[in-house]
Amino acid sequence: MDMTDLVLRHHRTLLVVFLLSAFLFALFGLRRISINSDLTNLADKFDQNYKEQIGFLSEKLSSNILVVLAYTDGNIEKAKRAVELLKERFEESGYVSETLKMDNPELFVKYGFLGLDSEVLRRVQNAFDFGEGSFLDFSQWRNLFASLSMLNELAEEYINRKGIEQYILLSPDQRLILINFALNSSVSDVNAIYQAVAGLRNTAKEVSKATGVRFAFTGTPAGVYESNNQVQRDFAITSIVSLSGISLIVYLGYGSLSVLLCLFLSMVVGMCMTLGLAGLLVGEINIVTSFVNAMVLGLGIDYGIHVMTRIAEYSRFKDLREGIKEALSELLKPSLIALLTTVGAFSSMYLGLSRPFVQMATFSIIGMICFYLTMMLFLPSMLLSLRIRPVEHEKLTFLRRLFSMSRSRRFALVVSAVLIAFIPLGALNLKEYWYTPPGLVAKRAESAMAFAELKKSFQRVGFGEICVVAEDLEELHRLDQLLKSSDLFIPPLSVLSLMEFSKFDGNGSAQNLYASLSEMVNNPFLLAVFKRIGMYPQILDMLRLLKGSKDLNDVLSELQKDVPLFFYQRAGHTMYVLYTDTTKDLYKDNRLKIVHNFVTENGVKSFGTPMILYMIMEDMRKSMYSVIFLTVCGIFFMLLLSVRSLKASLWITVGVLASIVGTFGAGSLLNIRTTFMTLLSVPLLLGLGVDSFIHMRHAVLRNDETHTYRTFKSVFLSIITTIAAFGSFSTAQGQLLREFGVLMGIGFVMCFFTTALLSFHVLGGEDRENSDVH
What we know:
The protein is an alpha+beta fold. The protein is built from 28 helices and eleven strands. Strands 2, 3, 4, 5 and 6 form a five-stranded antiparallel β-sheet that branches. Strands 9-10-8-11 form a four-stranded antiparallel β-sheet. It has a two-stranded parallel sheet with strand order 1-7. Strand 9 (567-570) and strand 10 form a beta hairpin. Keywords: Cell membrane, Membrane, Transmembrane, Transmembrane helix. InterPro entries: MMPL_dom, Mycobact_MmpL.
């Protein structure tokens, strides 16, 4: 029993089975879908280099510390009271393990306190050194009392730091108050972090409403929340916009409400089955699969358009049952070939790409199969069971003019000229691979804007995205000078920065430092101050440490306990870390490639998110070119088996490739570069572009102008609905996804006109094939 007989004999059973399956799959499958926006998922977790990079990232640069900013708006005391209330509410929420006090050395380094003038304390110390015969020098006494007054103010300020004062920092420009919260969940638990930040954001909104003080979140947890929120939003919005746009185009194309409702219900059934099965088999939505549902909607409706057009065509002169039989018999083979080429294109992603792309391939293949079965079985079964005879009321009147024009010589010359003009531009675009794709998170995200405010008020914040590791102190000095002498980087931050701040000579002995500190502590005036502010025990501990130290390594070992981020332990060996950033935006003008080349040429071992991103982009580049080559070979072989013509197979393959290269040429005019995401469009356009050629070739070889026009209309509507699906990506927050959608839209337009060119002016002269091909 073939598909046609199955529909004609068991249409009511099929209707119930599909509706029930869609409900059950959606009910159980959607519950299993989670959101995972972690960029490191793009990396190969089994590769040793990636393991080392991700391990360093989680140890040194990622943390579960949520940074909250309160805007003073000129009223510092009001902002402090609001932060105190926020702290109480956060600690009661169950999401916060502790509020960090501002007595951690790393926090002082992180918020730019190495920028303070260390000479102030030296001038205070020198004020107590009376020269011989100067005891009655009143100018020195004035300096002494001024210094004592300043020390007293510092002591009073330190002593008075109690309550909320112990947990906050007021920026030097008095615009911001900063407070740090450690969350209960590990930053690797993306879902738990998302829920925690979502709950704390609601609490912050309540406190803000009650006090009138504005709050902003930044830090790793805030970034995780926004990335997950973006993926979730993009998934929902692109799906809704895609479904709405496709429905509008279907109505304009057929001018029939009954046709629209049938296709709309079929799309919903196909989408529910796809999401349900994807939830069961894939289990999560990530930064790559966030747009797949919208894409599958645009591709899957193509089968429904071809089925509905054929049924409407044959039902005009025949009984509905006979019309469905004729339509399915004619479409079975070309639609199956189109499905196999599309599945083949997506299957190529299994060859060497990372887990998210494998998930994308699985998601897409599930979707294409579900939509194929829905449109070939459920849609005609619904028409037959409800006795709906599809009719067409032509609303897109320009299609007939476009059909006539596409068969003219002028059309062939214009399309050929456009392709010839764009292909060289496309080749140049494809030649230059960009390692710095547009950001996956919108630049106006709250955490990004809050961090910019933080840097503006505290000057230097954080340690730097780029981390360089030195094996020993000699190497540390070399790398420090190398980075400082380069115009690519800002001055690095390392343990050398602490030494420079304290004026400690790294080449000197620990005994010299001991003598200097001992002299300061034995001064009776300073001794009283140190005892009053509670620093005396810590200084005595430092003196005991220094007195027993044999060399600088003992001092560094103690320093490692206070500021561990400046040290990196691996295989029992302690190394030194330098933190830096680029002087210009790292993610513009392909600077990531320039930075990577610099550190590689100078034999520098580097870590951090930029280095992981470069490795991912490089792996994607190598994998994509292999995938594209295998996809071309696979599609050409499949065409040979299906159309049984070497000439036609070559022309179709070359035509699709020419339209893809031309697409990148048109994209270059819009400043769309060749990135890992835009390269993903190549195997997709290869698989999807061939579909139109297959349908048009079969129609042209029948030598029936009416049938050819209807196929032309079906192909046009299929292309437009697919463009609408990818056009929905323009509503996404991430620029990377928006550019991908624009490029795919250009690609489908190119494929449509190339299809018309080859179908009417190249392949139209072929001998008519045997009927079994159809």
